Amino acid sequence: MADLSFDAVLVGGGSKGLVAAMYLAHYGGMSVGIFEDRVELGGGWCSEESPAPGFNANHCSHVHGPDLYHAPVYEDFPNWEEYGAKYAMWPVSVGAVFEEDDSWIGIFNKDIDPSQERTAKLISRFSERDAETWLEFWERAQKYYIPAVKEFCFNPALPFGQPDAMDRLMANPDAGLDPTWLFMSPFQMYQDLFESPEAQVIFNRGIQAAGFTCEQYGNGLGAFLMLIGCAMGLGVAVGGNHHVAHACHRVILENGGKVFTRKTVKKIIIENGRAKGIKLEDGTEIEAKKLVLSGVDPHQLCVDLVGAEHLSSRIIRKIKNIERSWITITWYTWALHERPRYKAESFESGVEGTSMLHFATKNTQDLLDEAYWRRLRKMPPNLNPFASDTTQVSPESAPPGKATVLTEQWVIPAWAMKESEWKEYERKHADELLKVWQKHAPNMTWDNVIGYVPITPFWTAKQAKNWGPAGNWAVIDECPSQTGRLRPILELASGRMPIKDLYATGAGWHPWAGGSSIQGYNIYKIISEDFGLRKPWEEKGRPY
After folding, report:
1. How many CB atoms lie within 10 A of CB 383?
2. Which secondary structure element, helix H or strand E, spans residue 454, and what is its range?
3. Diameter of the chain by CA atoms?
4. R_g of the chain, CA atoms, integer Å
5. At what angle do helices 242-254 and 15-26 cross, to 10 degrees?
6. Which residues contact 9 (CB under 8 A, 6 or more apart)?
7. How many CB atoms lie within 10 A of CB 432?
8. Residue 33: CA atoms inside 13 Å, Cβ hemisphere, count?
């Protein structure tokens, strides 16, 4: 006899599981029970008072593209924004300041530059041809690219042989896409598109921030999607990204769902080839009357919770061979007396309102060299950080007149150094980062710093099992063989597991990682098909 019973039992209360639970409870009419190992819900949607009293920091997921990340959820849950899933948009999506001449380049948000003429004018200061290229891209993005990308993201992965939205887009001659881009590295693709090193730099650093790598061949799809993300605009959740988790939690509770934190799932109970429930570490058994949905990483799900005896040796071997040691960063939040004053502000106004402002040189080789050092599991000798001033768009993240700024630098995986070495690195990196920052903003001295919190891969790996052992915020890497319909592996990309009534979601599934609603929404689509549940996308005539 089970201790508790629900129609749908969810393993993990991360971002994707919360979205799926909303749909299962509200549109599916199911009783839902969520069992989370950590003290709170949300996974990467986490924020807290830090690094000083009165300041608020996002310690995992920071920059979101709400128009892409959550498009159908806002339509299907009209109160979601009111409940806390509200975003403030940065004026500039991505940009770079250059130490050679204190100039800068960036892509303005479509909400303040709907025609993208202002963006083109800024780009033209470096290349007239690149400005024309961007305007042509923007025109096609609105007509072809953005609708296709939304349809691609917010639909489950299709099997090979069945064209998806991106396949159809690539085959459309009016879209003007070069199919060889898919086989290029992002570095090659941006060279093919743009002639100025300035434009190449901002997009190569942007694709890196999205978890892809600029030097890896076959990552052209990721490079293209980075351009779309810039065109659609980037924002931050008002009050911190944990408010998005709170918004989901409220919807789930209103629809009868139950949440249990500090409950570690030891095993998924499988009987006669069917998922029947879960067993907790304390011995408690939870019955799943209809289905079990896992939000944990692929390795944890298949090897630890299901077990090799229930899956083919081929699947287990492929799961154990998944790459998951690349997407590792330092992620510092700084409490400042005053915002950084960039020398580039005299070149063109707006630089301070950039979501990801790269401190750069005009040598495009810098980012390639950084990747090569990291492939050797060595700390890059030169920094290529970006800064994101949250208070420019969400002033409540700091006391009046103060500033909360996040910085990011890519480093080696958690297991590549000992704990004592990471502790030593934390202060060393802070000193080195300030030296780079001062080149662009002279007021960025230690006198301007109230406090900082150092998030490293070592810290990340300890926060949730999904991110270990490397401290990989994307759960698994976004190499060409682990994105889209191949993520995490071909056999599991749809989220429908080979065991009846067992489903999977999370950042390790189609199409790629990030603090979005995509995977949670898509797994509900799969479940709704299997159980004949309500389909709001069909009711509203959406292609996604």
Report:
1. 20
2. strand 449-455
3. 72
4. 23
5. 20
6. 33, 35, 277, 278, 286, 287, 288, 291, 292, 293
7. 15
8. 20
Give me the amino acid identity at 313: S
Q: According to DSSP H, which parts of 194-320 are helical?
A: 197-209, 220-232, 242-254, 298-299, 313-320
Q: Are the CB atoms for 437 and 339 separated by under 8 Å?
A: no
Residue 441 pLDDT grade (very low, low, confident, very high; cuts 50, 70, 90):
very high
DSSP 515: S
Cα–Cα distance for residue pair 345/96, rounded to 1 Å: 12
Is-contact 399 55, C-beta < 8 A? yes
**CA atoms of 540 and 519, how far apart (whole Å):** 20
CA distances from 305 to 41, 132, 249, 266, 279 (A): 20, 53, 25, 6, 9
Verdict on whether the full-model pTM lies above 0.90: yes
Cα dihedral value 134, 140, 146, 148, nearest 10? -140
Cβ of 495: how many Cβ atoms within 10 Å?
A: 26
Distance CA 422, CA 364 (A): 29
* C-alpha distance from residue 222 to each of 67, 201, 382, 478, 513 (Å): 18, 16, 25, 9, 11
Among the listed residues 232, 268, 234, 18, the one whose alpha carbon sits nearest the alpha carbon of residue 110: 232
Of the chain, the end-to-end C-alpha distance in Å amounts to 41
DSSP string computed for 152-221? HHTSPPPPTTS--HHHHHHH-GGG---GGGGGS-HHHHHHHH--SHHHHHHHHHHHHHTT--TT-TT-HH
Classified as helix, coil or strand, 506 is coil
What's the token pair of residue 365? 């080789």
- The pLDDT tens digits of the residues spanning 374-422 come to 999 999 999 999 999 999 999 999 999 999 999 999 999 999 999 999 9
Sign of CA dihedral 460, 243, 212, 406: negative
